[in-house]
């Protein structure tokens, strides 16, 4: 190694600070921070480094350090340097130039809800947002115009109208341009729309409910019906939102990782309303653990760029330097910012939603065609086949203590999952909990048609399980005369951790050893996880198949007064039937326990 690290480390300070690593062309390779510079830098020149870190160390020609007074100063300096120099071994994000808002002017007697993409707010009026993207803005605008009939035309068009436009004809505008609505009533509709965009739709709904009852008492049934429709639209909107009226500004980060793929999803919550999401796929060249990686990503997201810092930042994983990062973010924002992982209620739902988004985005990454081709080719090499397999089938068994046993069969080809060929088998006539007998029944039912020449034969049959399941599969194939199908068993091992599976080929005496980073192993893990998911979903559907429905009169604890409150709150029986447990519990006089009873009574 050309860099004399021993001589360098002898003179490095133990203070906090920032270090920069350079190659022989004086290009910055990596920028990092440390609480104790000497200890952190010494760790790069010890054994047991992963391959990517070894590659970084091999390119180091010089290291420069900057001592700071505190860790917070080091963190801020690190992110400033990363943004300026963009070194190849750091997590790098592209800065946004402008942010989309919804703007409501104070100057026009009949204001519209306008889409604006700005960096600073200049005009007289109110800005709602920022939103994570243009789609979120346009979706919100469309919904508000549909519910409250707010105009969406330009001021120049508005000033020269002599008759209502098509938006009025289809019920999307109240035609203020031709005085079909008074300024006061129109302003009231705009204020209702703004309140909904700010997350205060519950107050709007209560006010509209009172107006509906008044209109009904005055025999203005057409107006009452219009208000009823508005209420129902708002109830559906509230079901999609998770509202926390105490402190509703937060960004939520969730990290999902599978072998060979990584995704971080961010949800933007403002005033208790979910404005949208973004997804990132940062590299993990230094093979960091997911907690450290997520912490590095968040620090770069806020401190290395100009993103708005909310009062709460919620993470799917605990961050190793959460207190330090929270201090730096508070200093940058000029107010207190919390980094929290353990959350309850609505915040817990936000966190779970972010996790779901991350998993969904990750599934899309795994379906990438180039990546799939690489994985199929790697599997061909690992199995020493003359050609890459064109069809893989994988079986799994799912049950709850022997109840509602279901077997799944999922199919993959070089284009990814072939969902049209997925099959489930309801297992019957076996001893509860006998997975071997369940596997025999599923395989026999699936492949007995192949013996007579029907159906498409797989190139590789995978069973999720150990030696017993593989032996059972081999017996069934021999009985059906299909011994030419290659068999592979996937056993999770004692730790049940990804990357530590044991793979059996044909017999339990022949194992296949694949590196944890092998694309072939990633493909087998992907199809195994998919078969597991498909089996569990089928098992749960079978277990919960017996459902009963009832009317409100048949539900214990729901008398005339509570029935009236339910119907009033949701605008009718259909709204009650569509409500979630959380929505039911918000009705006056309905406790969380009774809401559970009502939901179970209506849906089973």
What does this structure look like?
With 604 residues, the protein is α+β, with helices and mostly antiparallel strands. It has 5 domains: 81 residues, GIY-YIG endonuclease; 100 residues, no CATH class; 109 residues, Nucleotidyltransferase, domain 5; 175 residues, 2-Layer Sandwich (Nucleotidyltransferase, domain 5), CATH 3.30.420.340; 52 residues, DNA polymerase, domain 1. 44% of the residues lie in helices and 19% in strands. It contains 21 helices and 19 strands. Strands 12, 13, 14, 15, 16, 17, 18 and 19 form an 8-stranded mixed β-sheet that branches. Strand 4 and strand 5 form a beta hairpin. Helix 8 runs antiparallel to helix 9 and helix 11 packs parallel to helix 12. The radius of gyration is 30 Å and the shape is flat. The termini are far apart. About 2% of the residues have low confidence.
Task: Compose a concise summary of this entry.
The chain is an alpha+beta fold and about 600 residues long.
Highlighted features:
604 residues; alpha+beta; GIY-YIG endonuclease; Nucleotidyltransferase, domain 5; five-stranded mixed beta sheet; 21 helices
Specify the CATH homologous superfamily of the largest domain.
Answer: UvrC, RNAse H endonuclease domain
Number of domains: 5
User: What form results from the Cα inertia axes?
Assistant: flat
Mean pLDDT: 82
Intertermini distance = 69 Å
CATH architecture of the largest domain: 2-Layer Sandwich
The structural class is alpha+beta
Query: Quick one: biggest sheet?
Result: 8 strands, mixed
Q: At the third CATH level, what is the topology name of the largest domain?
A: Nucleotidyltransferase, domain 5
* Overall radius of gyration: 30 Å
| Estimated helix fraction | 40-55%
Please state roughly what percent of the residues sit in beta strands, choosing from under 5%, 5-15%, 15-25%, 25-35%, 35-45% or over 45%: 15-25%
CATH class of the largest domain: Alpha Beta
Count, helices: 21
Total number of beta strands:
19
Oligomer: single chain
Low-pLDDT stretches: 240-246, 546-550
């Amino acid at each position: 190694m050309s860099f004399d690290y021993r001589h360098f480390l002898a003179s490095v300070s133990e203070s906090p600070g920032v270090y920069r690593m350079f190659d022989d062309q004086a290009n910055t390779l990596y920028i990092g921070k440390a609480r104790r510079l000497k200890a952190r830098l010494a760790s790069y020149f010890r054994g047991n480094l992963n391959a990517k870190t070894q590659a970084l160390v091999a390119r180091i020609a010089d290291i420069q350090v900057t001592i700071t007074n505190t860790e917070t100063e080091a963190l801020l300096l690190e992110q400033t340097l990363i943004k300026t120099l963009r070194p190849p071994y750091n997590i790098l994000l592209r800065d946004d130039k402008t942010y989309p808002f919804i703007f409501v002017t104070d100057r026009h007697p009949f204001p519209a809800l306008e889409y604006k993409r700005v960096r600073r707010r200049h005009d007289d009026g109110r800005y709602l947002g920022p939103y994570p993207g243009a789609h979120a803005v346009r979706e919100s605008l469309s919904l508000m115009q549909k519910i409250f009939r707010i105009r969406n035309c330009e001021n120049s068009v508005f000033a020269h109208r002599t008759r209502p436009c098509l938006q009025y004809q289809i019920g999307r505008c109240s035609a203020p341009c031709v005085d079909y609505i008074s300024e006061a009533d129109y302003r009231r509709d705009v204020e209702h729309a703004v309140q909904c965009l700010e997350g205060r739709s519950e107050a709007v709904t209560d006010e509209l409910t009172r107006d509906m009852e008044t209109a009904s008492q005055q025999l203005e049934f057409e107006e009452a019906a219009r208000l009823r429709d508005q209420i129902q639209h708002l109830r559906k909107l509230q079901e999609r939102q998770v509202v926390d009226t105490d402190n509703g500004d937060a960004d939520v980060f969730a990290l999902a990782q599978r072998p060979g793929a990584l995704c971080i999803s961010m949800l933007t919550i403002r005033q208790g309303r979910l404005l949208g999401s973004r997804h990132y796929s940062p590299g993990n060249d230094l093979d960091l653990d997911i907690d450290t990686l997520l912490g590095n990503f968040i620090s770069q997201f806020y401190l290395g760029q100009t993103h708005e810092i909310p009062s709460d930042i919620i993470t799917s994983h605990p961050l190793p330097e959460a207190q330090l990062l929270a201090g730096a973010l508070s200093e940058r924002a000029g107010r207190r910012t919390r980094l929290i992982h353990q959350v309850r209620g609505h915040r817990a739902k936000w966190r779970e939603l972010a996790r779901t988004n991350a998993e969904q985005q990750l599934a899309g990454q795994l379906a990438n065609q180039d990546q799939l081709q690489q994985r199929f080719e790697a599997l061909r090499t690992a199995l020493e086949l003359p050609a890459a397999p064109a069809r893989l089938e994988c079986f799994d068994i799912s049950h709850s203590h022997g109840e509602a046993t279901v077997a799944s069969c999922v199919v993959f080809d070089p284009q990814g999952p072939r969902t049209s060929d997925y099959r489930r088998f309801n297992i019957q006539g076996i001893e509860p909990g006998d997975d071997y007998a369940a596997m025999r029944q599923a395989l026999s039912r699936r492949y007995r048609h192949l013996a007579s020449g029907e159906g498409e034969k797989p190139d590789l049959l995978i069973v999720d399980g150990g030696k017993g399941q593989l032996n059972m599969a081999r017996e069934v194939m021999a009985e059906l005369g299909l011994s030419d199908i290659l068999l592979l068993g996937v056993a999770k091992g004692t730790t049940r951790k990804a990357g530590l599976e044991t793979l059996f080929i044909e017999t339990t005496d022949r194992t296949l050893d694949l590196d944890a980073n092998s694309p072939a192993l990633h493909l087998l893990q992907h199809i195994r996880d998919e078969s597991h998911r498909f089996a569990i979903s089928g098992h749960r559907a079978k277990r919960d198949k017996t459902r009963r429905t009832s009317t409100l009169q048949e539900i214990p604890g729901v008398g005339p007064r509570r029935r009236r409150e339910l119907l009033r709150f949701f605008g009718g029986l259909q709204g009650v039937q569509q409500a979630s447990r959380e929505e039911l519990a918000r009705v006056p006089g309905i406790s969380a326990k009774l809401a559970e009873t009502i939901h179970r009574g209506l849906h089973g």
